[in-house]
Amino acid sequence: MLGSCRMDEGYRNRNLYQRSRDSNQASDDYRYQDGNYEGYAPDDGYYRGGDEPAHEEDAQSDVTEGHDEDDEVYEGEYQGIPHPDDIKEKQKKRAPAMADEYRDRADLMAERMEDEEQLAHQYENIIEECGHGRFQWTLFFVLGLALMADGVEVFVVGFVLPSAEKDMCLTSSNKGMLGLIVYLGMMVGAVMLGGLADKLGRKKCLIISLAINAAFAFLSSFVQGYGFFLFCRLISGLGIGGTLPIVFAYFSEFLSREKRGEHLSWLCMFWMIGGIFASAMAWSIIPHYGWGFSMGTKYHFHSWRVFVLVCALPCIASLVALKFMPESPRFLLEIGKHDEAWMILKQVHDTNMRAKGEPERVFTVSYIKTPKQVDEFIEIQSSTGTWYQRWMVRISTTFKQYRMNTLMLAVVWFTMALSYYGLIVWFPDMIRYFQEEAYESRVKVFDEEEVSHFTFNFTLENQIHRNGEYRNDKFIGMKFKEVRFEHSLFEDCYFEDVTSSETFFENCTIISTVFYNTDLYEHKFINCRLINSTFMKEKEGCHLDFEEDNDFLIYLVSFLGSLSVLPGNIISALLMDKIGRIKMIGGSMLISAVCCFFLFFGNSESAMIGWQCLFCGASIAAWNALDVITVELYPTDKRATAFGILNGLCKFGAILGNSIFASFVGITKVVPILLASSALVGGGLLALRLPETREQVLM
Question: Is this entry keyworded RNA-binding (predicted)?
């Protein structure tokens, strides 16, 4: 959005050309003095603010009562009948229509700029007249469910990975790709669907976005192969990636300037609720590995797939509820659909007034300002170019017109995402590392044991057997977990129905031994000598069904991390309109950077969980303020596009953060901590140079 200095400059440029207008036409113009519009002329057709009395001739056409057999016309309803002044205006415009083609392009743009400025202030007055009540709160919960679905999507893959690993035999690289593919889909979806929302409408594109997410999230719970599951999560992420830019653009256009910062911040709480919902559902569903069903030996529907289905519920609920909500009237005004916009604004007004017990209150708006349409290059492209050309032109024009603000916002979004998402992955990885260290410290070592004619039918866990001899022993219906046999001898032994996890035989000699229905595959025998040994009917697929205590702790960590942002959400909502967006972003990022340095003292699981909660609680205010200022800086025709581009860059930062921070787990804490804190400091200081937007109307 243009700053106030740019607005004044637009008005000065207006003086570059003057056209003679008759006295009737002059009375139709807005007059703007010292930031306030004067009262409208009695015979104008614009929205009449304040308590100015309407002329009798306007009252007869604009405020009517009565009905016929087909329609019921309520007091104050828009009649769709052209105002007499409008007819005169159209007649005057027909003659010089051809002359407009030869007018200086800068003059036309300056006039459009002034018209848009007038429309922005008039729309603000209309929203204030409509009030803030039942309609906004209904939309709040509908869009909140969509934002909740976005929060759920971030956590789903991380929670199902341990169980999906068992069903799909995932390698470490497979698991890493599955974790990143969702962010990749969200990055593409934010840019693509955000741009479409400025062209097709907020409601329509949000429905498309949620429908894609719901369909492919549902499908992903049933597919068995890794490749197909990966594809479904990619497209599911693409769908949900469009929700964030559309939701904030959509909701902001029903809010007045005084309510916008606070209520957009309250809306951000649904992302937190999504994280809590996902954590709670994972905790209560996934450990029940027996939940589900099997069809033969090839198809298995286990508890983690039930969890994936449950996580699609917020998306489906929002999709259904959205069908009953209207399109953004601000978007409709931008594309010239003034009658539809008027009807929706009247619906908002009447809904709120009935809820307040004032159904007799009349919606006084009879006419809304129409900005002058200019045949810009992007409009030409919309009818002659390909979809790819239109998309690229929209992005390039957004960047060119708001270059400096977009560059600064891009850096702030990127540094925030790099630090936040990098640390969010690093925290649970470090907790696992501490757990593995503690687990390894409890390992039992057996040296030179000799066992013969013995039947092993119980679980062996976290053991190392060195230089042992096993003769005529049977290993039947048992499990090995984290067991290593080194320099050992197995002679005339029998293994049947054996399941293993992280179990290896190193430098062993195996003589005349039979392996029947086991998962002791070739790669688990390292530098071993196999003499007259037989492998029969090896197990197919993955059969790891050990209960992992680590999984429960990860659910708890994610739950506490999501819950810890509640105080930050409340504080940011209450203070957003008091201290401003810029101070909120800069202060939150700098406090988060200080929190990063305390991670040097996180040498245990409990300490790491505590510092994670503190970091999440401190950083959430910056996220909320970033969402608000991004909405307010850009005009209606570029709002969702700009938000989508910046949010796509955010997801790119998340991918980099996940990859970089995870690579240092178990190696050093210095690099992740210094990288996160320096990025937060740099982004926070740069954010202080952004223009403050809390006093601006939505352009």
Answer: no
